[in-house]
Design a protein that fits this description.
468 residues; mainly beta; DUF5719; signal
Length: 468
């Protein structure tokens, strides 16, 4: 990576992805169109270029840390926000507007809706959040990406063992009801419990759902969130208390969809052995969590590498329909990238734990990331020890430029390697040349660890030719 050099030129591009428009017509109509054609193109169907109307761009941030009680410690059926997360935003448009979603009877994390108003084209919008909290037994740091509304989200993380609280936040930024179904899996298989289907989330609001309402005393969980009607942004918050000692909190961002190849960038290992000393620390060990949504057993190879080229490979087997935690012992402190290659599609995430000040610990959940495009905007929320990681799983070296105002960072990410570097926080970043790479942001200091994946640009419609 070369040193940062000044630049006096800003270049802004809006990159979109074409969407398909299907026109269904009767066979007789198609025949007539081919027969008639036009005066200039006889025998060819007439066509018209349609330019989609520019629309506002929206993403939803996870919100603040949650406690399952009110401020007085009562009403354990309602989640209450604690403290306030810091948010950084970016857009290819003129501005980013922030607004709140309504709370429901189950409480709210006060999620923020980011909106970039449309101009002549649909802009991009991006953001992330970071929070350090110390309030009673809720101590640690959490970070999350601000995400596109979707109909399907995989949350790889969580636990419902004693002292562990996992809360699913369902945010609906649309103007229609969203009906949500939760498919919950643990080490025994799929959970069958009333209330997991038909969860209605009102328009422009958030509902908080405790995972313990469906499954109890399970150390390893994976949740598939599916919605119809309005689309949903789903996150999960996990809080740990070991006897009377705070064990940290973090936010689980949605991971990549099931695939035979998953990449988890920038996993922080720091003091893992020390974090496992004492009572009730079995879940302080670092693990890679896997789940096979199909019916065939997965044979998995896990490549674990650092930015300096070091690393190793771990082989594992994951049975279908149950959650598998692969122990990651004996790795020195550092930031790692996990590349998962499987014989069948899987979802994956990683959990690590670190000692913090005052004899406590903090946990971090790291989600798998989707490949980036050639031109991406993002913003890193300010937090302790923030670093960006770019992983190159492609067969070619990538020359990447990260621009923030007049600051330009140029680096080459070799095929199969990881680049980890310090990038500016609380400002808009533009990443160019990262087609096919995956990215993540991690935080590490004496208050704890956290991380989230960098999201690719939202697919934007471009003009299409429509035929009768």
């Amino acid at each position: 990576m070369s040193a940062s050099t000044p630049s006096t030129v800003r270049r802004w591009l809006v990159r979109g992805t074409a969407t398909a428009v299907a026109v269904v017509v009767a066979a007789g109509t198609v025949t007539a169109a081919h027969a008639l054609g036009t005066a200039s193109t006889p025998g060819r169907p007439a066509g018209q270029t349609v330019t989609p109307v520019a629309a506002d761009a929206e993403r939803v941030c996870a919100g603040d840390a949650l406690r399952l009680s009110d401020d007085a410690g009562n009403d354990a059926t309602k989640a209450t926000a604690v403290g306030s997360a810091t948010i950084a935003t970016a857009t290819t448009g003129d501005t980013v507007e922030r607004s709140d979603l309504d709370a429901s009877a189950s409480g709210s994390s006060d999620p923020r809706l980011l909106t970039a108003p449309a101009g002549s084209t649909t802009p991009q919008v991006a953001g992330s959040s970071y929070q350090s909290v110390s309030d009673g037994d809720l101590v640690g740091v959490g970070a999350a990406s601000c995400d596109d509304p979707a109909q399907s989200t995989w949350l790889v993380g969580g636990s419902t063992e004693t002292g562990r609280t996992s809360l699913i936040t369902l945010s609906n930024p649309t103007d229609v009801n969203a009906t949500v179904d939760l498919s919950i899996y643990d080490a025994s298989g799929e959970v069958s419990a009333p209330g997991t289907t038909g969860i209605v989330v009102a328009p422009n609001s958030q509902k908080v759902v405790p995972l313990s309402g469906f499954v109890s005393d399970q150390a390893s969980t994976v949740v598939h969130v599916e919605s119809s009607g309005g689309q949903i942004v789903a996150h999960m918050q996990e809080t740990v208390v070991r006897t009377l000692t705070p064990g940290g909190f973090d936010i689980v961002s949605g991971g990549a969809a099931p695939s035979t190849s998953q990449v988890i960038p920038g996993v922080v290992l720091s003091g893992a052995e020390a974090a496992q000393r004492g009572d009730d620390t079995a879940d302080a060990a670092p693990v890679l969590r896997l789940f096979v949504p199909g019916t065939a057993t997965a044979r998995v190879s896990i490549g674990i590498t650092t930015a300096d080229g070091g690393g190793s490979t771990v082989n594992a087997t994951a049975e279908p329909g149950i959650v598998t935690d692969v122990a990651l012992d004996d790795f020195p402190d550092g930031r790692y990238s996990f590349t998962v290659s499987s014989t069948v599609p899987v979802v994956a995430g990683a959990r690590t734990t670190t000692p913090t000040q005052g004899g406590a610990t903090d946990l971090g959940w790291f989600a798998s990331a989707e490949p980036l495009g050639d031109d991406v905007v993002t913003a890193i929320a300010p937090g302790g020890g923030a670093r960006m990681s770019l992983v190159n799983p492609t067969q070619r070296d990538a020359d990447v430029t990260v621009t923030s105002g007049d600051r330009v960072q140029e680096l080459t990410v070799v095929s199969g390697a990881t680049a980890t570097f310090t990038a500016p926080t609380a400002t808009q970043l533009r990443i160019e040349g990262a087609e096919g790479l995956v990215g993540g942001v991690t935080y590490q200091d004496d208050e704890g660890i956290a991380g989230y994946p960098i999201r690719p640009s939202t697919a934007v419609s471009t003009p299409v030719r429509v035929y009768p």
